[in-house]
């Protein structure tokens, strides 16, 4: 069996025959010319070298399917991953009570099936809260880790190829929780949400929580004004004032390491307002702040070192952690692109944030509305509209051969390349076309934007 890692986490274990079955189903549905080639069957037992070759071919196959907008969003592909996740974790389908947190720590208990996917669980939570259908799409479920001070560290946004109950229980750690939060970046959409009592309450609770945890910057005078509005229970006015404050609507990440402006700098990254904000601590203890606009990122990618062995044969002591990096290529000036790398366990979540910012920008640019950005149920099947919203995170496959090196770097070192170097390049040292998320918002950049 092969271990499939998605978003840096072991998602499921599958056999070659199961993947072949998925391939044949996709071919039947979408045609042989759309589906990538599948590694061929072999009559004789595979040698260790052939086993590794097949693993690499299967990994490329899964990545190619996931990154194809039609195949990657298909119910066939996503239900395959969900079923495999449930089987791997050996959780039978049954009714359970799942606890979902709100930003203010309040718990919402919903009765769901263990086999319910993310969309179903989100709808169950919305229904329990009386959140109207047309506002459900403004919110998402996130997997978080509760820190000692009661704050939350964001692990990832739950995706359509996973079962939230299975995802959270398989971690066997009570610190991991599921939380409901708004999932858009442009604060002008707050107006839609605030039209309804429940939407207003959810937004208000999140804003209060972000201020309490220091995510939104508040000076003494603003603090006094906010306190007074809180006492009067003027929720809309409270949110309106908060919208004018620095870092409103941003997600703050745990302290991590960056190579900008120099290697090994400690940094606190926040995502919001179509940018990644850096608060960098330089070696001389000085704090420097700067922002990277998403429209000037030409592409980005997440790379990881995944533990390759299963069980005690691995040479690494204890439980080896997956090391994740997010690197993006940034237009520093008119003719200069530079790679910037962030080394953080939250790299996947950062990538998901970038992807959803770009999606939102593109929907706005095309004159679409945010309501159209979210999936709607049609005849019981899920269909995706205007936007390919889920981040196309490539699954990574472990080798079933336990004698391999315990850690394998899955990408070559990133090197700075010319502006048009990547997509037309055949050089093995350049970034492969499937390894990164090209940023379509970047295409529209003009000199005046610099």
Automatic annotation (TrEMBL):
<feature type="domain" description="PX">
    <location>
        <begin position="1"/>
        <end position="88"/>
    </location>
</feature>
<dbReference type="Pfam" id="PF18116">
    <property type="entry name" value="SNX17_FERM_C"/>
</dbReference>
<comment type="similarity">
    <text>Belongs to the sorting nexin family.</text>
</comment>
<dbReference type="Pfam" id="PF21273">
    <property type="entry name" value="SNX17-27-31_F1_FERM"/>
</dbReference>
<dbReference type="InterPro" id="IPR048763">
    <property type="entry name" value="SNX17-31_FERM_F1"/>
</dbReference>
<dbReference type="Pfam" id="PF00787">
    <property type="entry name" value="PX"/>
</dbReference>
<keyword id="KW-0813">Transport</keyword>
<dbReference type="InterPro" id="IPR001683">
    <property type="entry name" value="PX_dom"/>
</dbReference>
<keyword id="KW-0967">Endosome</keyword>
<dbReference type="GO" id="GO:0035091">
    <property type="term" value="F:phosphatidylinositol binding"/>
</dbReference>
<feature type="region of interest" description="Disordered">
    <location>
        <begin position="382"/>
        <end position="410"/>
    </location>
</feature>
<keyword id="KW-0968">Cytoplasmic vesicle</keyword>
<feature type="domain" description="Ras-associating">
    <location>
        <begin position="94"/>
        <end position="185"/>
    </location>
</feature>
<dbReference type="GO" id="GO:0007165">
    <property type="term" value="P:signal transduction"/>
</dbReference>
<dbReference type="InterPro" id="IPR040842">
    <property type="entry name" value="SNX17/31_FERM"/>
</dbReference>
<keyword id="KW-0446">Lipid-binding</keyword>
<dbReference type="GO" id="GO:0005769">
    <property type="term" value="C:early endosome"/>
</dbReference>
<dbReference type="GO" id="GO:0006886">
    <property type="term" value="P:intracellular protein transport"/>
</dbReference>
<dbReference type="Pfam" id="PF21271">
    <property type="entry name" value="SNX17-31_F2_FERM"/>
</dbReference>
<dbReference type="InterPro" id="IPR028666">
    <property type="entry name" value="SNX17_FERM_N"/>
</dbReference>
<dbReference type="InterPro" id="IPR036871">
    <property type="entry name" value="PX_dom_sf"/>
</dbReference>
<dbReference type="GO" id="GO:0030659">
    <property type="term" value="C:cytoplasmic vesicle membrane"/>
</dbReference>
<dbReference type="InterPro" id="IPR048767">
    <property type="entry name" value="SNX17-31_FERM_F2"/>
</dbReference>
<keyword id="KW-0472">Membrane</keyword>
<dbReference type="InterPro" id="IPR011993">
    <property type="entry name" value="PH-like_dom_sf"/>
</dbReference>
<protein>
    <recommendedName>
        <fullName>Sorting nexin-17</fullName>
    </recommendedName>
</protein>
<comment type="function">
    <text>Critical regulator of endosomal recycling of numerous surface proteins, including integrins, signaling receptor and channels. Binds to NPxY sequences in the cytoplasmic tails of target cargos. Associates with retriever and CCC complexes to prevent lysosomal degradation and promote cell surface recycling of numerous cargos such as integrins ITGB1, ITGB5 and their associated alpha subunits. Also required for maintenance of normal cell surface levels of APP and LRP1. Interacts with membranes containing phosphatidylinositol 3-phosphate (PtdIns(3P)).</text>
</comment>
<dbReference type="InterPro" id="IPR000159">
    <property type="entry name" value="RA_dom"/>
</dbReference>
<dbReference type="GO" id="GO:0032456">
    <property type="term" value="P:endocytic recycling"/>
</dbReference>
<keyword id="KW-0963">Cytoplasm</keyword>
<keyword id="KW-0653">Protein transport</keyword>
<dbReference type="InterPro" id="IPR037836">
    <property type="entry name" value="SNX17_FERM-like_dom"/>
</dbReference>
